[in-house]
Amino acid sequence: MDIRKNYIIYLLGMVMALASCTDPYEDTTFTAYEELPISLLLESQPEKFSMWVALMQHADMYNTLNLKSTYTVFAPTNDGVQRYLEANGWSSVTDIPKEDASYLVKYHTINQVKISQSQFENGVINDRNATDDNLSIEFREGGLNAIYLNGESRIVELDIEATNGIIHGLEEVLVPVRATIMDRLGEERFSIFREAVETAGRAEDLNTIVIEETDVSGNPLEYRIRMTAFAVSDEVYAQEGIMSLEDLITKLEVEGEDYMDPENGLRKYVDYHLLSQVRSFADLGAFPEGETSMNINTLATNELINIADRSGSLVMNYDTAANRGVAFIRENINCKNGVMHEVDHWMPLFTPERVTVIWDLTDYADLQALCDQYQNSSLNSTYTRTFTQEELSCYTWKSTPEYRPNAVAYRNNRGADGIWYADAVNHDHLRLDLGQSGWIEMETPVLIKGSYEITMTYLSYTERENTGYLQCSMDGKRLGSQWPVSNRRYDRALERGMTSSFTFDETGSHTLRIVAIDGELLTLDHIRFKPVD
């Protein structure tokens, strides 16, 4: 059949989940449109993609990618597929075990989103692929001819438009990431840091991909672990005279041998190199508007890393006296349970200066683990996830009535349903429907002691006229008076200064309580802490 003239499109309707290993739409076709869906479009260019098409067919994924849905597909060229086969000792794509072939195709496919070249940014792609992994984009010298996926495959053709998505041609087949952060630290060059992680009791955490639990009703809960690690090589340690774990313990002046105690010097050092969420290189450089520096929380209690833009370079913990900071050797090393960055300094604990802190009220590891579309900037429709008390540790609340079904929800979208999103941090917000006098508590990011001006930003829900009133307190101390969160159409994304200043006597995290005075809907985005003298 000449597919250039006799265009075929497969049965539209119920979209098969990508997780399926079978192809239920085999032998079911209709002749339809002049434009082509993804599989047929790839098949129409056999000189480039015939081997990838053969792999899709072997994997029972060919017809799936012809369905009426939306996909972004990274398709390796014939030469790339051939090199992949030779590297693995296979003579043809049918030699690949079917399960592995299916996983490979899914790894190159992002479902429900169309990501064009204009949306590429250095760093991790927010939308996860069909194996629930993040791919990463890297721009190298050479402009559009030097865009790399996962740091291993150059994109050789951009923006091939299909009726059901978009295709980007790859020079090489991506090797699916199966290594955890702990696996990455298994490289011989990280032997000291890895031993420190093991001795401090963090190895299991860095080797975990999914935590499965049940709630009080016996319903299954699944938390996908996504962390960030700043890894130090043996070569970097050697520059400080650190040749072994014992040398590191001595350098840190660790007291006591209970290295798993969170207050032990070695444990705090290891935790200082870990973040509870994925932070790509691009994320680390996403400063608050008008700022060139920010502090980020680590797993070490009340310890912060400072990130700053110095002369166009991203530097951590810049020491003015020493005229140097911590730079990056390798960024965005993809792992199955997060991302790793290799740094050029042994990076001991550092006390940064006060800076403006933008606290996104949805910026918690619990939400990232539970929400499929967490902070996704590419959504074309509303994503909402409501929670029960048993699912979350980041929020504690009491609603009226006590078991109000939609009391706390996460929402992410780009302007649907009447919410104004132009100023929303990370494209999402916290929705509170707590009922009259219902309340919610949460912990702030770590704040350096001192005085701050505190400002709350909310989002205007333009489909209703009612105004919700809230009252806030910090560590039990009242913040200003009652504040209206207006939902009127003319009152969009207004900022409300809750108090002129508030002084924190100690560096640390603090407890914010929000009380819904009149029980109306509250749509809250972020709080800004601006240092004042």
TrEMBL record:
<dbReference type="Pfam" id="PF02469">
    <property type="entry name" value="Fasciclin"/>
</dbReference>
<dbReference type="InterPro" id="IPR000782">
    <property type="entry name" value="FAS1_domain"/>
</dbReference>
<feature type="domain" description="FAS1">
    <location>
        <begin position="36"/>
        <end position="174"/>
    </location>
</feature>
<dbReference type="InterPro" id="IPR050904">
    <property type="entry name" value="Adhesion/Biosynth-related"/>
</dbReference>
<feature type="domain" description="FAS1">
    <location>
        <begin position="177"/>
        <end position="347"/>
    </location>
</feature>
<protein>
    <recommendedName>
        <fullName>FAS1 domain-containing protein</fullName>
    </recommendedName>
</protein>
<dbReference type="InterPro" id="IPR036378">
    <property type="entry name" value="FAS1_dom_sf"/>
</dbReference>
